[in-house]
Amino acid sequence: MTQTVKLAIGSVLIGVLVLAIKAFAAWLTGSVALYSDALESTVNVAAAIAALVAIRYAARPADATHPYGHHKAEFVSAVLEGVLIIVAALLIMNEAWHVWRAPEPLELPLEGLLINGAATVINAAWATLLLRQGRRHRSPALVADGRHLMTDVVSSAGVALGVLLAILTGWWWLDPLMAALVAVNILWSGSRLVRESLDGLLDGAVSDDMLNRLRSVIAETGSGAVEAHDLRTRHAGQVVFLDFHLVVPGEMTVFDAHEICDRIEAALIREVPGARITIHVEPEHKQKHSGIVVLD
Questions:
Q1: Phi and psi angles of residue 232, each rounded to the nearest 5 degrees, phi first
Q2: What is the CATH number of domain 208-293?
Q3: Which spans are transmembrane here (predicted)?
């Protein structure tokens, strides 16, 4: 079992625990804001399960019908998570509107806040771990789950502040107002997550920072070649695909050209572990004078 799968399973278990705690706090107080917080945790559990399925599927090796692997399954999971977040936001908006028209005092609000606060601390710790490990393992599903949970943490803090102000002032309409603000916040988060995930599904290129690092590696390790041009990249789940044309002197043997390609490929994989690299070797008259100049 890989580390990413273990983390995904952990997300499901943590999600269920946090959901139970928040649901109890909402039931105890009758707060629509705390209810909205619990409802978002329901989405967290569903999204964590989707991420687990996607990560396990994405880990499958390439086969005859998927020769490039199954890596994009993680992006599908992230899109689904974004859609679930948006649905949760709309449900919260609907509930907040009903309570707004007839706000009522809360029961045991301080106790409810303390219980909800415990769930928020658990979420914050797990979200931090997911973001760190997700970036380390280049897992879009884990990063998406971590971002979602961190958004949940921010929402929970806002809910707690609103409920506390309602207790201190007696303005019980602050409760549905905070629920509505939570809905707006997670609606924005969900739309951003969908947009970023769709970029991966549409073969979006790597970041400019990574692209510059790749260009430097090619320039520094391609001694013997003339230039590299038409460098293209895309990322699919944990894997980065890149291809480019490498211009070599016309009189160079196939063996020597292949040695240069092997040296560049090894250096690129050290920079981006697991990268899939395709190099097209061309003779000197194909030089474009506009690509990566190889350093001797």
A1: -125, 145
A2: 3.30.70.1350
A3: 7-29, 41-59, 75-93, 113-132, 153-174
